[in-house]
Amino acid sequence: MAEFSTTGGVTRLGSTQRQDAWWIELLPVIVVLGGFGLYATLRAFEGKFYEWGPYISPFYSPLIDAQHRWWPFSPAILILGGPLGFRATCYYYRKAYYRAFFLDPPACAVGEPSGRKYRGETAFPFILQNLHRYFFYLAVLFLCFLWYDAVVAFRFPEGFGIGVGSLVMLANVLLLSTYTFSCHSLRHLVGGKLDCFSCGTFGPPRHSAWRLVTFLNERHMLWAWMSLFSVGLTDLYIRLLAAGYFKDIRIL
Ligand code: FES
Q: Which of 26, 27, 99, 165 is the most exposed place for a label (fewest CB within 10 A)?
C-alpha cells in the first residue's frame, strides 16, 4: 500500500492540505474547558458557600470535615482528585485537550510541533492515562453520593418539597450518570472485549447491557459537555444562593 502523508510531507506546526477552518473546533474547548478549570479551581479553594438548606455543591460532595477539625483547608481539596482524575483521563477529553492545549496534533491531518519524539501514552506522565478504568470505579462511588444529595435536596425542614435547586441537582446527577455510564471503559467491561456473547456466561443480559452502554457511548462527547456545564452551573446556583444573591424558588 502506498504511503500517504496527511500533512503533505511537511511537519511544521499547522501545515496541512485541509481547506476548511479546522482551528474553529479548538476555540470552544479552550474557552469552555479552560474556563471551567479556572472556575473549579477557584471554587475548590474558596472553602465556603457550598451549602444552602438541603442543597450541597457537587464540588464539595461528599462533605468531609466541614468543621475543619483536622483539615485546615477547603474540604473540596480532599475529594477533588476523584472527579478530576476521571475527566482528565477520559478518552474524549484527552483528544480534546491534547489538540486544544498541546496542539499535539491541533487537528486531524494538521502538522504538530516538530522535534517532538512521539511516545504516545507509554511513558510518564501520560502513561497515567491508563488509570482511567480505576477512576471509573471511583466515579461510580461519587455518583452514589451525588444521587443521595439529589434525593436529600427534596427534603426541607417542613417535609417533602421541590425547589429550583432540587431540580437543578437532579438534572445534574442525571447528566453525570449518562456521562459516567457512557464511558468507553464500561463498554469494554460489559461486553466490548467479547468476540461472542452467546458463547460465554450471562451472554443475553451482557448483550443487552452492552447495547444500552453503546447507545450512550455513541453520544459520549455530548454527555461530557452537558455534564461539565451542569456541574459548574449547579455549583454556581448553590454558591449564589448561599451567598444571599437571590432566594430559592419553591415550586411545591
Ligand atoms: S471514556 Fe470518557 S469517561 Fe470514560
A: 27
